[in-house]
Structure of Glycoside hydrolase family 1 protein:
Amino acid sequence: MEKMEILSSLRITKTVLAILSLVLLSNIRVQAQGILLLPSEKQSQRDLSTSKIGEGATTNAHDSILKFVNSSSFPNRETFPRGFFFGAGTSAPQIEGGSHEGGRGLGILDVVYSGDNKYVTKIEHYQRYKEDVQRLKHLGVNSYRFSISWNRVIPDGTLKGGVNKEGIEFYNNLINELLNNDIEPFVTILHFDYPLALQQNIGGFLNRSIVKHFKDYSELLFKTYGDRVKYWTTMNEPELQAMYNYMDNLGHLSTEDCATTKVCTEVYTVLHNLLISHATISKLYKSKFQTVQEGEIGIAISAKSFVPYSSKPQDVDAAQRLIEFQFGWVLEPLFKGDYPKIMRKLVGKRLPEFTKNEKEMLKGSTDFIGINYYFSLFVRHEPNRTKIPASDNFDALAVTEVLNVEGNTLGYYDQYGCSYVYPEGLYNFLLYINKKYKNPRIYITENGIPSFNIPNPLKDEHRTAYIAAHINATKAAINDGLNVGGYFAWAAFDTYDFDDGYSKHMGLYHINFDDSLKRIPTKTAKWYKKYLTLDSVH
Ligand SMILES: *[C@@H]1O[C@H](CO)[C@@H](O)[C@H](O)[C@H]1NC(C)=O
Ligand SMILES: *[C@@H]1O[C@H](CO)[C@@H](O)[C@H](O)[C@H]1NC(C)=O
Ligand SMILES: *[C@@H]1O[C@H](CO)[C@@H](O)[C@H](O)[C@H]1NC(C)=O
Ligand SMILES: *[C@@H]1O[C@H](CO)[C@@H](O)[C@H](O)[C@H]1NC(C)=O
């Protein structure tokens, strides 16, 4: 099946479900299989069926990139700055398993996937972390991005409910194992999943009082692991966590004007509370831990270049608005202390206000920006509410498009990954961030392509081409003077995708579910290793 991948979206669509399912108490799994194609994905499928991009284009594009990778013009590992991180990433809810082991409490996602045994066991990273660290070492990476499960260390989310020693020990062991193998731990504190009890008892991030619990949890992490962990990401893609959970309302959009619906107010409350949570723990880290522990604390966002659909001023303005609504929504408060003006204007009273103290706390609360980049999209002016939410925001009066007015795409369509490949979009996004926020520290925290439509997932040359082209784009930005400190391929291992289970084969290590979850390096893993260990790819 041809399927345009809206990666970031897909990875969390079910988070969305998780939260509403708690309210609806319905069988989400069934729903998920049926109607949970994101509307924008359907849109893309329609676009694709009429577009002329085919196998030839993909193959030619791959070949030319792979030739380039073999040439002396491809930037060598040693041309990157000293201390540059080359890593790979995962998240706890996508690989750990051991959901009912070692005293772990349930997370919101456990409810959604309780019927899916693969979600419950996942790739058994919880049991096999030692072996997995050896795989990472073999891969040649000098860093590994992973997330800690809040409900594994604090089962009901509150200190009052108690700390789980076994959970604490698991991450102690993982961190030590990484460091013993010269792999820098790059740790995410909140990656979509959080304690179910907090959702049930206080309404999760809709309730401002979650900030206190998030602070307690984070303080425990800084105290326990901060002597060894020097790179903290407070949260992963908070804007998507808010958008899909609320404004998109699981794709159950009413025809009602967004401004009058509950979810279109809640979306801003949730992100507001996420930002206050971020700033609160960042302040805590900076005031109590940073001088002694000498680490960095930042946030990771989902990135895209938004390109006007046409040269009409309306579309140019729409692209600019969506940039403010998606990226400015998170980054303007963190750098300047408040939401973008255009959001105040268009969202009005639904957009919460920060107090003076909060503004002060927010400003300068991030040492780095983590960038999760997969592909880019066009943006068209759309004054009417449409049924195309995805990363669009109704209040921005803009919708994303795969094709522009002339029928062109951004980059080439990769038939194996079922996605567009547009490294220039990463480069341009980096330049945008650099200019707007005055040369901040940046890490590429996620970048990758699925092996969806591929006979043998071990033969993933298309992924080699994809990753190489994005490493090349990263290097181009560094050559321009940007402060980029690392590149993390997504993902180290096949991860459980919140919509597609394991069918995307995102991992550099393929997991064989028919043979005791054996980890097998793909062609791309072998290429990455060669590249990283300077084992002459040329
Ligand atoms: C690149 O080099 C490798 C070995 O060094 C070779 O196997 C591969 O075929 C080359 N690819 C292209 C497209 O030239
Ligand atoms: C928010 O949390 C507090 C406890 O901290 C609780 O008393 C209150 O009912 C919660 N509000 C909602 C709307 O759930
Ligand atoms: C918006 O909706 C109105 C009324 O349904 C319609 O007349 C108008 O053409 C629509 N505008 C666009 C850009 O689709
Ligand atoms: C590699 O980066 C350079 C800019 O430094 C760019 O001109 C070139 O097109 C890139 N190549 C690929 C295959 O993306």
Notes: The first strand starts at residue 85 and ends at 89. The chain has one domain: 46-533. Residues 1-53 have pLDDT under 50 and may be disordered. DSSP finds 20 helices and 15 strands in the chain.
